Amino acid sequence: MKRTVTVASTLAAMTAIAALTACAPAGYDGTQAADPEPVANAEVAAAASPTPEASASPAKPPANVPLTTQLIAKKVAKMGSVVTDQKGWILYRFDKDSANPPTTNCNGDCARVWPPAVTDGNTELTGVEEEKVGEVTREDGTRQLTLGGWPLYRYVGDLKPGQWKGQGVGGTWFVVAPDGKKNLSCLPEGTPKAVPPPPVEGEGGAAESTGGDAYSY
């Protein structure tokens, strides 16, 4: 992500103006569902005190949002090359997103089924090329990691690290390869459905859905 730098004014009289083969994972049963350019400092009188430049720092994610602190390229049985987070959860990309420009279209209930890989800007990389990794700002203001321009997600239908039950879900979700492309080494038969969004507790204590009408596979 770009960081915008604001150039402070100096004197009142002088002002500076400051982007396949059918295959199924173990356990799959077929039913799962333009920055402004900084300008040169104006010449100041010898008696004037220097004014430091102020920089806008990106907002930190809310404390209750789990961070993806590592991206790790590794190989798993059948699938081959994948990318996981620091806990070993395999990451995915969504065909209804965009890589150019990086855009995420999974929000509301969709993001509860496919939690975005949120970052604070300090993600460590292992086997993943730094120039392929970026960020996109989500509608809630959090920063989501991208790989090859594609936003990254986990899948709540994966019950333990190393599973990839999200492969081919809805014909739009795929395991991401270390270069950001879709890993199509192993595809399930048919088109599996995503698991339903996990329930959330409403004000009255009952489980409810949030933004379900916007959820698409």
Structure description:
By secondary structure, the chain is mainly β. The protein has one helix and 15 strands. The strands form six sheets. Strands 8, 10, 11 and 12 form a four-stranded antiparallel β-sheet that branches. Strand 11 and strand 12 form a beta hairpin. The protein starts with a strand and ends in a 9-residue tail after the last strand. The N terminus is likely disordered.
Features:
217 residues, mainly beta, 1 helix, 22% strand, disordered N terminus
Q: What is the N-to-C succession of helices and strands?
A: EEEEEEEHEEEEEEEE
Q: Report the uncertain regions.
A: 1-21, 29-57, 203-207, 209-214
How many helices? The count is 1
Q: Could you give a short account of the major beta sheet?
A: 4 strands, antiparallel
Strand content: 15-25%
- What is the C-alpha radius of gyration, as a whole number of Å? 22 Å
Helical content class: under 10%
